[in-house]
């Protein structure tokens, strides 16, 4: 089992598995992965003492990490309650996808021609997504899917924009799990990735943008429906 999956699977992280320096940055990465993979759900409290015990650290780096994650919008601090995973309202979710549409288009439009090594890396990540899709390993598929897309985005010279896209992905990631439980959806994601790779190899950025727009719409419509249903259930 990889360190990333182990950290997300709910097991307490031992000293041998942890990074050499387990400060606030390391703790923040672990909590962020728990949120991104759906292990810690939107609205769920994050108890500093139990999280410190789970990660094998003191409460201080946990408190600092939660403060940093709150500044990114991933968690929120509730007075007299403590920290909890942030919950998106429908309007906020819609804005995230509006910004993704605009920013990802700009990033993909600036992609240079990629060499064979870069294309091989992207293909290898697409293969990991496909393998996880075949075995219905939703956690591995979500993580590999993000790695695939940012292996593409990271070749753009617009790195400040890529950083903002990464933040937007993190905010919406907890809501994506249900989308991938459908086997037909998983097959479609894999096929769309292959089409995007073909466009990248041909350096057809306009085609790539069109494919990404279609790819994103599928996630947005399904996840948005889930969010609307959950919102109605809470009212």
In short:
By secondary structure, the chain is mainly α.
Q: Could you outline the blueprint of secondary structure elements for this entry?
A:
Blueprint: H1 3-8, H2 24-36, H3 48-55, H4 59-72, E1 75-78, E2 82-85, H5 90-109, H6 116-134, H7 138-153, H8 159-172, H9 183-201, H10 205-234
Antiparallel strand pairs: 1-2
Helix pairs in contact: 2-4, 3-4, 5-8, 5-10, 6-7, 6-9, 9-10
Q: Your description of this structure?
A:
- The chain has helices at residues 3-8, 24-36, 48-55, 59-72, 90-109, 116-134, 138-153, 159-172, 183-201, 205-234, and strands at 75-78, 82-85.
- By secondary structure, it is mainly α.
- β1 (75-78) and β2 form a beta hairpin.
- α2 (24-36) packs across α4 (59-72), α5 (90-109) packs antiparallel against α10 (205-234) and α6 runs antiparallel to α7.
């Amino acid at each position: 089992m990889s360190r990333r999956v182990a950290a997300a699977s709910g097991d307490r992280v031992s000293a041998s598995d942890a990074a050499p320096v387990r400060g606030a940055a390391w703790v923040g990465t672990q909590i962020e992965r728990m949120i991104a993979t759906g292990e810690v759900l939107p609205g769920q409290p994050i108890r500093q003492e139990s999280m410190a015990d789970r990660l094998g650290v003191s409460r201080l780096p946990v408190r600092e990490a939660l403060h940093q994650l709150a500044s990114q919008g991933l968690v929120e601090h509730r007075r007299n309650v403590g920290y909890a995973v942030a919950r998106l309202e429908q309007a906020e979710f819609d804005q995230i996808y509006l910004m993704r549409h605009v920013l990802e288009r700009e990033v993909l439009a600036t992609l240079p021609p990629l060499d064979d090594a870069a294309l091989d890396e992207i293909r290898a990540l697409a293969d990991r997504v496909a393998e996880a899709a075949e075995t219905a390993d939703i956690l591995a598929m979500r993580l590999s899917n993000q790695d695939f897309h940012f292996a593409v985005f990271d070749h753009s010279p617009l790195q400040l924009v890529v950083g903002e896209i990464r933040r937007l992905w993190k905010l919406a990631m907890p809501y994506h799990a249900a989308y991938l439980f459908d086997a037909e959806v998983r097959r479609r994601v894999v096929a769309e990735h292959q089409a995007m790779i073909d466009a990248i190899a041909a350096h057809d950025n306009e085609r790539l943008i069109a494919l990404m727009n279609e790819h994103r719409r599928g996630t947005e419509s399904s996840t948005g429906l889930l969010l609307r249903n959950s919102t109605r259930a809470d009212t």
